[in-house]
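BUG: 3D viewer hangs when loading the predicted structure for this chain

Environment: internal workstation, default settings.
Expected: structure renders.
Actual: progress bar stalls at 90%.

Input used:
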Amino acid sequence: MQEMTLLQYKGVSRQRGFVLTLNNIMNLFKMGRMTEWI
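Structure tokens produced before the viewer hung:
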């Protein structure tokens, strides 16, 4: 039981990390576009 929750937690944290990385890349891209427009 505990092993399952641990695996689930690892999976969730990995997904969350991936989403955060994706958001960071998008934000950097938007900032790059903004500076280009300026």
